[in-house]
Design brief:
This protein is of the alpha+beta class and 435 residues long. The protein is built from 8 helices and 22 strands. The chain has 2 domains: 336 residues, Collagenase (Catalytic Domain) (3-Layer(aba) Sandwich), CATH 3.40.390.10; 79 residues, Immunoglobulins (Immunoglobulin-like, Sandwich), CATH 2.60.40.10. It has a 7-stranded antiparallel β-sheet with strand order 1-7-6-5-4-3-2, with helices on both faces. The chain binds zinc ion (ZN). The site of zinc ion has 6 residues, from helix 7.
């Protein structure tokens, strides 16, 4: 058996009281900082590769019961997620991401204690308690990045089309070292949002990790970093064509644990419980509802991700009830689920991913047929040709299929496609091919 970890958690009673007193957007919420700086605890698990994920985290989630609602293999990692139901029926969450070598990154959210568990392939384990964003601190920044790369407009639509929001997770080297396996950590971060969206009945919107980039300089989780984010991670943006860019940095010395553009596509994050909050700001969401319907519906609610000292894996929605049978939101003042549905098209169409593997699939004397692997968010493809006589690429066709047949007997022309998404953004060119 593995050793148990003795971690004492101190409830943040003062924060909970503060949250209950309905905080307005910029309102200062004066409360003493709770003594939550619990040192990381470490221990060793023997024969780690033979242990199930349930055995690895059992001691940390007790007495909660894990209700698994997601399990997928992504990029070679096994990503599992679900709620943690406490004896009093209040709800926490658990995300586990396990690599092939047996190492584990888990985000554990048990009411009153939350943090990240890392187990390496040798069984060395460390649990670090982490903070929630404080909804009394203003961390939403009125967007400027829309100016740089905006979809045709910020008009909102809500439909049931599947919307996949592709995310670049950017790290400073220092923070990548802290999380040990930034790829696993990034997958876990995406899943914190996906779980909350599922719990909140936003079933057609999901986050997908497009790629990660690590930069050498260190940055604070600050507004200044937020404003520079698209520059800091420009090469990752170039490579992965993400819709949303999330920077992960050390929180030490930072003015807050995160900032998010509202509405927008960028956030800076320090810790495991920040991104699901900042993406809420990206989706045009505010903190706690001021209870005045004139302010709109895009607010959090008690114990939802945008509001409160203790969050739980929910965005506000009137359609889901809490452990006391009360709605987790209000249709007029606290419906972040609606905000996500209505902003999903914008959030998922900042960029179009290029088609890949463009190749010749057949030819006759007079014709060449090409095929390609689809782009995630293409609604059509534009086919281009460049010839020795006309080296500037010419658009020669539009197609919704994944093949194109060109009348061409010369063998000296090059072809490629660009993907076009539903916001009419065009991707970078695919690779090129010829006869
Ligand atoms: Zn916030």
């Amino acid at each position: 058996m593995h050793d148990t970890v003795d971690v004492r958690f101190i409830r943040r009673a003062s924060s909970a009281l503060c949250a209950a007193s309905v905080v307005v957007l910029l309102g200062a919420c004066a409360h003493p900082t709770p003594p939550d700086s619990i040192e990381p605890k470490s221990w060793v698990i023997e024969n780690v590769a033979a242990k199930t994920t349930a055995e690895l985290y059992a001691d940390l989630i007790a007495p909660a019961v894990f209700e698994r609602s997601g399990s997928k293999v992504i990029d070679g990692y096994t990503v599992e997620s679900g709620n943690l139901r406490m004896p009093d029926k209040s709800m926490g969450s658990l995300i586990t991401v396990r690599a092939k070598d047996g190492s584990l990154t888990a985000i554990i959210e048990v009411p009153g204690k939350q943090g990240i568990l890392r187990v390496n392939a040798d069984g060395k384990s460390i649990f670090t308690r982490e903070k929630y964003p404080d909804s009394s601190v203003e961390d939403s920044v009125i967007s400027t990045d829309n100016l740089l790369m905006a979809p045709s407009s910020s008009k909102t639509t809500a439909d049931n089309e599947p919307r996949v929001i592709e995310v670049l997770a950017g790290f400073s080297r220092a923070y990548a070292n802290v999380v040990v396996d930034p790829h696993a950590f990034s997958l876990a971060e995406m899943e914190t949002v996906n779980l909350a969206l599922r719990n909140s009945l936003v079933t057609n919107v999901s986050m997908k990790l497009a790629g990660i980039q690590i930069v050498e300089p260190n940055y604070l989780a600050s507004k200044e970093t937020l404003h520079q984010l698209l520059t800091i991670f420009s090469s990752g943006i170039d490579q992965y064509a993400p819709d949303v860019v999330a920077g992960f940095f050390n929180g030490e010395g930072s003015p807050a644990v995160g900032y998010g553009n509202m509405p927008g596509r960028t956030s800076v994050n320090a810790g495991s419980f920040v991104f699901r909050h900042e993406i809420g700001h990206n989706a045009s969401g505010f903190h706690c509802s001021p209870s005045d319907p004139a302010s709109g519906y895009g607010f959090g609610y008690n114990t939802s991700i945008m509001c409160g000292a203790w969050y739980g894996p929910y965005y506000s929605t009137p359609l889901v009830r809490d452990e006391n049978g009360q709605p987790r939101g209000d249709a007029l003042t606290a419906d972040m689920a609606r905000a996500f549905r209505e902003n999903a098209m914008r959030l998922s169409t900042y960029t179009a991913s290029p088609a890949t593997n463009f190749r010749k699939t057949g030819s006759t004397i007079t014709k060449i047929t090409f095929g390609w692997d689809q782009s995630n968010d293409a609604v059509r493809y534009d086919v281009y040709r460049e010839t020795p006589a006309q080296p500037q690429p010419q658009k020669i066709a539009e197609t919704v299929s994944l093949t194109y047949t060109a009348a061409d007997s010369s063998g000296r022309s090059m072809y490629f496609v660009k993907a076009i998404n539903s916001a009419a953004n065009e991707s970078k060119p695919s690779n090129k091919a010829s006869r």
